[in-house]
Amino acid sequence: MDLNDRKFKILEAIITDYIKTAEPIGSRTIAKKYDLGVSSATIRNDMSDLEELGLIVQPHTSAGRIPSDRGYRLYVDKMMQSQELSPETAELLQSVVENNVGQIDYLMQQTAKALAALTNYTIVVTEPKSPKLNIKHVQLVPIDERSVVAVIVTENKAVKNHVLSVGSVPDSEQLNNISQAVNNAIKNYTLQDMEAIASAMLTTYPEHKELVTKLLKALISAVKQNDNVHYYTSGVNNILGFPEFSDVEKAQNIFRALEEKDMLITLFDKEGDHNDEVHIVIGGENNMKELQDCSIVRADYNYGNDSYGTIGVIGPTRMNYSQTVSVLNAIIKNLESVIKSLSDGKNNGGRNG
Amino acid sequence: MDLNDRKFKILEAIITDYIKTAEPIGSRTIAKKYDLGVSSATIRNDMSDLEELGLIVQPHTSAGRIPSDRGYRLYVDKMMQSQELSPETAELLQSVVENNVGQIDYLMQQTAKALAALTNYTIVVTEPKSPKLNIKHVQLVPIDERSVVAVIVTENKAVKNHVLSVGSVPDSEQLNNISQAVNNAIKNYTLQDMEAIASAMLTTYPEHKELVTKLLKALISAVKQNDNVHYYTSGVNNILGFPEFSDVEKAQNIFRALEEKDMLITLFDKEGDHNDEVHIVIGGENNMKELQDCSIVRADYNYGNDSYGTIGVIGPTRMNYSQTVSVLNAIIKNLESVIKSLSDGKNNGGRNG
DNA sequence: GGTTAGCACTCATACCAAGTGAGTGCTAAC
DNA sequence: GTTAGCACTCACTTGGTATGAGTGCTAACC
Fold first, then answer.
1. Distance, in angstroms, between A70 CA and closest chain B CA?
2. Are the C-beta atoms of residues B121 and B95 closer than 8 Å to each other?
3. Fewer Cβ neighbours under 10 Å: the N or C end of chain A?
């Protein structure tokens, strides 16, 4: 059975209508609302075919039809028109990014917040992380008489702080010396040779054994903690606004999933390849049963040196995919351009004149 | 009208019962369940008096009574028995704190998570902040060819990173020199004299004008950002578990409030004095109308040098105050002891032998 | 005066039965 | 292939009727 033009149109009508109203839509409604030039009976026959193909389903006998996951999939892959953003929206997205450059965590938060407000869905933004993480620079900074912070800059330009508490803190100059020594050691050895570095350092600085030992531990944990990605969410409460989640049980499941860090991260990591495209996972296509009624639209943003972060939009399967994709594309473009202009040293991108 | 012993007992019965069941409780139930030695009619008379005093209310004519905010207040202030924590609970709370020393953000997150799991309420933990914030130490660390991170250690031992993007990055040695110069300047001037520091620095390092300017800007913003407190929440979804919030509208209001950073912060800042005590705000006592059906139990933890953070527990007014207070006291004690032992340089507190 | 039994009254909730209407599937005619 | 017509399904609404938990009041009791 193939899909002629009219059936495509009917499917599209059902999907767009259902996205708007969340109500099952019947043959008569389509006949009246969309000018297909045929009667409701004909549409009824077509709908029967569409159902046979698994593209739409009937919640119960005397109701209209709603799209199935497969229906949405077909729509998303073949039928969906890309949507132009309004100038105001585009500008808003740009200003959010540009106004928060420099403080990566704040930038993420504000991005998430803006997207949540714009889409009315739930947003998750993960900090950039690199598949191959190497430490680029280490600096010890004194905090008080008993503790120093090890500032660790990784290849992917992430900056992490580890507080080390030690018996006694060397003076600034010595801290600098030790930092320098570690930096040199890191350049010459790989992290696998941490043992070697440790023993080398300890012969040079036997009097700071405690500090050096703890510092190396921190370095190792920094590398390991690579999979301990930070992330920011916003618009979680939007979930409750959708009639499909007015059942508290369902909403609670979703909330639980959203609080479960590991779940989210694997969800984002899954679909393999991190490329430029926007990925869409519809309903049951993801195998977390808490999110079977949700769709996830996500895209990765490049952060230089193979490192990337992810922005994910989570909403009901009845989601405005077209708009969401446009918004995601726009924000990713903004983010990457700002990041690029930063590392180019010139801020020549996207300023209005 | 005064409250004799029996009336107190009746009020207590209503409150404890309602905390457990969330159902209005009637005279007959009290007479049967609690052995007061009088008939339901007598209890009925007493309940009428309690209602006249505004301590309990009737949701509708043919229902039992439930405690009012004033009833809870009386209970919390005069009647509530402090509750001993089970050894397992105490141990859990201790291990959470001890296992996460050193990474302040992770510690907060885990603390929030543990408390949420334990109490079944929503937890908000704010990072420590100081009423008088001074910068103690600054260190520049290179990131790549175009950016350095300014690591700022404040008096309250918070460590903040600001990424500065500059035309060209001086080598490590020069970065150290500049850092040192700023540190010296900060010791001699107050932050109000930032202008003076700036001009002094710029005569010393004219070739790094850009970097120095941006660094000083970062310092100022670090001081200002003092009120931009970070905080961590956990157990937000627990809200949905309570029958009083099964009305989606209400739940959504609460969620919105919890996502509104400023609201939460002012909520915590409000009740003035930050001392050792656990503060309890019941229902309408706080003036955020979104949280009128919630109670907030919060306590501050000391972080040395006048700086403190706050741990807040948010739940329905029908909250297990006694347990919540005990848990809060315990976790605060653990946190403070660990913090103290860190700055004492010896970890001699609370290890099992 | 405090306590109690008895009783009328209220009112949310559950239950049931009938009615309504949106929507379908099928058949026969066009 | 399309359409009109019709029987059928079934969620949802409406209204009327219990049911029962709980109260307030009164009169009697200790």
1. 30
2. no
3. C
Highest mean pLDDT among A126-140, A178-192, B11-25: B11-25
Q: What is the dihedral of CA A208, A209, A210, A214, to 10 degrees?
A: 110
Lowest mean pLDDT among A128-132, A176-180, A251-255: A128-132
Q: Identify the pLDDT of residue B239.
A: 92
Q: What CATH code is assigned to B87-129+229-344?
A: 3.30.450.40
Facing B240 at nearest CB: one of A136, A176, A251: A251
pLDDT band, residue A319 (cuts 50/70/90): very high
Residues 175-234 on A with a CB inside 8 Å of B are: 176, 180, 183, 234
Q: Which class is A5-79 in CATH?
A: mainly alpha
Q: Which candidate, A156, A140, A139, A179, places its Cα nearest to that of A104?
A: A156
pLDDT digits (tens, 9 = 90+) for A121-174: 999 999 887 666 678 889 999 888 888 899 988 776 778 888 888 888 888 888
CA of A341 to C1' of C13 (A): 66
For all residues of chain A together, what is the average pLDDT? Answer: 85
Reported as a single tens digit per residue, the pLDDT across B302-342 is 887 677 889 999 999 999 999 999 999 999 999 998 887 76
Average pLDDT, integer, range B121-148? 84
CA–CA gap between residue B226 and residue B297 (Å, rounded): 24
Pick from B6, B5, B11, B9: nearest CA to B53: B11
pLDDT tier at A271, thresholds 50, 70, 90: low
Handedness of CA A93, A96, A102, A107 (dihedral sign): negative
Estimate the share of chain B in helix, then strand, then coil, as percent rounded to the nearest 5.
55, 20, 30
DSSP string, B128-183: PB-SS--EEEEEEEEEETTEEEEEEEETT--EEEEEEE-SSPPPHHHHHHHHHHHH
Radius of gyration of chain A (CA): 26
In order, the DSSP letters of A94-156 are HHHHHTTTT-HHHHHHHHHHHHHHHHSSEEEEEPPB-SS--EEEEEEEEEETTEEEEEEEETT
- The DSSP bridge pattern shows strands B122-126 and B135-144 to be unpaired
- Long-range contacts (CB closer than 8 Å, 24 or more residues apart) made by A187-195: A191/A134, A191/A135, A191/A219, A191/A220, A191/A223, A194/A219, A194/A220
Residue located via tokens 């190497």: A134
In the structure, how far is the CA atom of residue A42 from the C1' atom of nucleotide C30, in angstroms? 14
A171 to chain B, any CB pair closer than 8 A? The answer is no
Contact criterion met (CB below 8 Å) for B226 and B133: yes
The shares of helix, strand and coil residues in chain A, as percent rounded to the nearest 5, are: 55, 20, 30
Neighbour-count burial of A81, counting CB atoms closer than 10 A to its CB (0-12 exposed, 13-18 middle, 19+ buried): exposed
Provide the pLDDT for residue B129.
Answer: 75
Query: What is the domain partition of chain B in residue ranges?
Result: 5-79, 87-129+229-344, 135-227
What is the distance of C-alpha B151 from the center of its chain? Answer: 26
Question: What SS3 class is residue B64?
Answer: coil
